[in-house]
Design goal:
The protein is of the alpha/beta class and about 425 residues long. The chain has 17 helices and 12 strands. It folds into 2 domains: about 280 residues, Aspartate Aminotransferase, domain 2 (3-Layer(aba) Sandwich); about 130 residues, Aspartate Aminotransferase, domain 1, CATH 3.90.1150.10. It is globular, with a radius of gyration of 22 Å. It binds pyridoxal-5'-phosphate.
Length: about 425
């Protein structure tokens, strides 16, 4: 029903739909388990013959209501919450890739996600090839192998702020019979809905704008339901062949468009257990209720701050795709006509040392390992989130050594600019 609503209404109304006499506000189902009347009823749940709750590691009503809201915001078919964005990106790939498989990734990724795909899943036998997000179609197509199972990128990369040409990546993925997975954390569905451009699966670190208040670490995976796993059955045996751990169920046959999320829940969540706590899902839901109000303000403030920095004589460069002349302005105008996000990056003419010194002088903007929430915050990726990378890896990830990541909050933009003004005066 709510699919017909505008996105602002979905932020408020989607997800929890109380019936007669039930709480108006989403309850926190603070229960590990759920009661049944007969052993037979419980048995059918374990066989995936009935749907219902039995253990919170697999599913919980609070989490499901919030996942449904995120699903509707993205225009997807099914969704699940995870304990973190990292867990979402891990599950999204490992749900369809196994030992001996390969994925193609944009090289402009969040530092943690880069480590996950470059190193950690490599130890599990899944290899990644990284491509420049701005590469030609030929270069992109050349990265695929016989055993490639997915293509991965970020709508707006953290912290490189490259804008993914979603249509280009979707076209290449589909030409090779694999889905495109897009991490839509920075844009949020308020500013971009990757499914409308051909992406098949969307992931989120809900820790960022969705929560919006730096309260809870969380993640989400949304499936569009559009990718036809059966048409490429040989590539995706986990979805198209019997699962012996569920008495031979074939996910695509039994769950159709719900196959991918059902498998991720029934296998990965069952075995790896990276659930979001219902308490955190409740808080995330409160954040989602104002996402449509906060995102435009983040963008408006970011544009003002970026314009100010651009005109400052101590500033060497500024990245903000909402500014005319930015390398990604045209792609941003296509995929995110209402604005990108509140995160901007810049470097100082004094180089790395000056950048770090300026940060230490800030009073309103706090130095925190966080980004994309209501409070303005700042970070130096080369010293912090991307510390494990060597210079070559840093440059490939689009992170210059002097890059300051500045996450513009929803305070009054004049106060944020005044803080920068006094900090810059001291370097
Ligand atoms: C923060 C972030 C992640 C990781 O999310 P966590 O919730 O911190 O695990 C993944 N992708 C992007 C784009 C991020 O910004």
């Amino acid at each position: 029903m709510s699919e017909q609503f505008n996105i602002e209404t979905k932020c408020i109304q989607s997800g929890w739909k109380p019936k007669k006499g039930e709480p108006r506000i989403l309850p926190i189902y603070q229960s590990t388990t759920f009661k049944y009347d007969t052993s037979e009823q419980m048995g059918r749940l374990f066989d995936l013959e009935d749907s219902g709750y039995f253990y919170t590691r697999l599913q919980n009503p609070t989490n499901d209501a919030v996942a449904e809201k995120i699903c509707e915001l993205e225009g997807g078919y099914a969704a699940m919450l995870t304990s973190s964005g990292q867990a979402a990106n891990f599950y999204a790939v490992m749900n369809i890739a196994e030992e001996g498989d390969h994925i193609v990734c944009s090289s402009a990724l969040y530092g943690g996600t880069y480590n996950l795909y470059a190193h950690t899943i490599r130890k599990m036998g899944v290899e990644a090839t990284f491509v420049d997000p701005d590469c030609s179609e030929e270069e992109l197509n050349a990265a695929f192998r016989e055993n490639t199972k997915a293509v991965v990128g970020e709508t707006i990369a953290n912290p490189a702020l490259t804008v993914l040409d979603i249509e280009k990546f979707a076209k290449a993925a589909h030409a090779h019979g694999v889905p495109l997975i897009v991490d839509n954390t920075f844009a949020t569905p308020i500013n971009c809905r990757p499914f409308e451009w051909g992406a098949d699966i969307v992931t989120h670190s809900t820790t960022k704008y969705m929560d919006g208040h730096a309260m809870t670490v969380g993640g989400a995976i949304v499936d569009s339901g559009n990718f036809d796993w059966s048409a490429h059955a040989d590539k995706f045996p986990g979805l198209t062949q019997p699962d012996e751990t569920y008495h031979g169920i074939v996910y695509t046959e039994k769950f159709g468009k719900g196959a991918y999320i059902t498998k991720a829940t029934a296998q990965l969540m069952r075995d790896l257990g990276s659930i979001q706590s219902p308490q955190n899902a409740f808080l995330l839901n409160i954040g989602l209720e104002t996402l449509h109000l906060r995102m435009p303000r983040h963008c408006e403030n970011a544009k003002k701050v970026a314009s100010y920095l651009k005109g400052h004589d101590k500033v060497a460069w500024v990245n903000c795709a909402m500014l005319e002349g930015d390398k990604y302005h045209d792609l941003a105008a296509k995929y995110m006509p209402n604005g990108t996000c509140g995160v901007i990056t810049f470097g100082l003419k004094g180089g790395r040392d000056a950048s770090v010194k300026m940060m230490d002088n800030l009073k309103l903007a706090a130095i925190v390992t966080h980004v994309a929430d209501a409070r303005t915050c700042v970070l130096h990726p080369a010293s912090h989130t991307h510390r494990q990378m060597n210079d070559q890896e840093l440059l490939e990830a689009g992170v210059q050594p002097d890059l300051i990541r500045f996450s513009v909050g929803i305070e009054n933009a004049d106060d944020i600019i005044a803080d920068l003004e006094q900090a810059l005066a001291l370097v």
